[in-house]
Amino acid sequence: MQSANMLLRKIVRSSVLPFAAQHGMKKDLFPLSRTLSLSLCLKQDKSREPSEKLDLDEWKKVMKSGLQEEVSETVSEPKELSGLAAARETLEMWRLAGRAVPENISEEELKTFMECPSKSAKKKYLKYLHLKELHKKNDKRKMREKRERRLEDQASKTDETKKNSFLCMWSSTMDKAYNWRAAQSMIFGQPLVFDMSYEKEMSLREVTNTVRQIVLSESCNRRSADPFHIHFCNFKDDSLYHREFVKQYREAWGRLLVTVTDQCYTELFPKDKLIYLTADSPKVMKTFDHDKIYIVGSMVDKSIKTGVSLARAKRLGLETAALPLEKYLLWSTGAKNLTLDQMMHILLTLKDTADWKKALEFVPKRKYCDFVNKPVKELKKTLDLINTLKLGKGREEGQKQFAKSYPKKYKLK
C-alpha cells in the first residue's frame, strides 16, 4: 500500500505539475483541495528560482540592529534598578550612622535624591523628608489623642436633652453653600487665571509648594462672598502639577469647580482685557478693575528668579502691573514677592471693599514696619528702632533708603 502511494506521488509530480505550470489551473481537472496543494507547491518552486538571491550583508545588518535594540532595552532597566538599589543601600548606611533619614521613601523621592548634584544637597533633601515624616507622625498622634478625649467626654456626659435657641449649622451644609457659590461664579463670576506654564522653572519641591498654595487659594476663594471663576491655563495632563493636585485633592479633583484647560489664556480671552500681575512690573496697580482679567503666575522660586513672569508677559504682548506695596507700606527687608494664597486674599478684599489698607493687611508683617498713613515722627521712631536693633552701624543707610523711597512727601531730620 505504501509503495502504491509513493508511485502515485511520483506520477503526479512528473506529469501533472509541468502541465499545470504551462496551461494554468483548470477548475474541472482537480478538486478544490488538490488545487490548493498544487498552488502551494508552485509557490515553493517559484521561490527557489535562482534569479532571486538573498543579500547576506543586509540580512546581517538587520539582525545586528535588532539584537542591539533588544540588548539596550534589557540593559537600561537593570541600570535604573541598580541605581535605585544603590540609593537604598546609601540610605540604610546613613540611617545606621545616625543621620536624619526618613523611614519610608517612595520611588519618586528616591529619583529626586539621586538627581541631587552634591552630597550636601542630598543631606538637606533627606533632612527635609525626615522632618516632614516627623510632622506627619506628630499630627496623627494629636488627632488620635483628640479623638480619644472626645470619646471620653461623650461617655462621661449624661443623656440629658439640651435646649438651645440657636440652630445647629453642620459643616456639610456650609460646604454645600460654598460649592453653590463656586458653581455660580463659573457662570457669572469674574475670571482669575493661574498660569501653569512654569513647571520647567521649578524643582519638584517647589512644584509641591506651588500646588499647596493654589489649594489654599481655591479654598479661600470658595469661602468668599463673591468668588472668582478660577482658570488653570496651560495645564498639561500627567504633568508634575497634575500629579500633585491629585495627591492633594484625591477623589475631589474630578469634582473641583474650576476650569482646567491646556489652552493659553490669550486663546480664551481678548488681550486688551488681560493684566499679568508680577512684582517686576514697572507699572503700579492703582485700582481694582472689575472688567479686567488678572493673571497670576503659578511659581514658587526659592532662589527668587527675577523677571521670569515679566518676560513671559512681554513675549505675549500683555499689560503688566505690580501691587503698590511701597505706596502704602514702609517696606523693611526682603523681596516684594508674595505667596499665591496671599495674592488671592488681597484680590478678594480689593474686589469686595476696594480698600488697599484692608487688602494689604494680608502681607506678612515681618516684611514691613508699618503703614505710611501714620505721622512722620512715628515712622521715624520705628525706622530708628529697627536700624539700631538690626542694622547697627548702618543707621545712615536706612535713613537714605527711607528718603529715597519717599523723597517728596516726607523728610527725616
From TrEMBL:
Compartments, record wording: Mitochondrion
Gene Ontology MF, one: tRNA binding
Enzyme Commission identifier(s): 2.1.1.218, 2.1.1.221
Keyword Protein biosynthesis in record: no
Keywords assigned by UniProt, alphabetized: Coiled coil, Methyltransferase, Mitochondrion, S-adenosyl-L-methionine, Transferase, Transit peptide, tRNA processing
Reactions catalysed according to its record: guanosine(9) in tRNA + S-adenosyl-L-methionine = N(1)-methylguanosine(9) in tRNA + S-adenosyl-L-homocysteine + H(+); an adenosine in mRNA + S-adenosyl-L-methionine = an N(1)-methyladenosine in mRNA + S-adenosyl-L-homocysteine + H(+); adenosine(9) in tRNA + S-adenosyl-L-methionine = N(1)-methyladenosine(9) in tRNA + S-adenosyl-L-homocysteine + H(+)
Alphabetical list of Gene3D superfamilies matching this protein: 3.40.1280.30
Positions of the SAM-dependent MTase TRM10-type domain: 178-370
Any single GO CC term annotated in Swiss-Prot or TrEMBL for this entry: mitochondrion
Name of this chain's protein: tRNA methyltransferase 10 homolog C
Organism: Mohoua ochrocephala
Protein's gene: Trmt10c
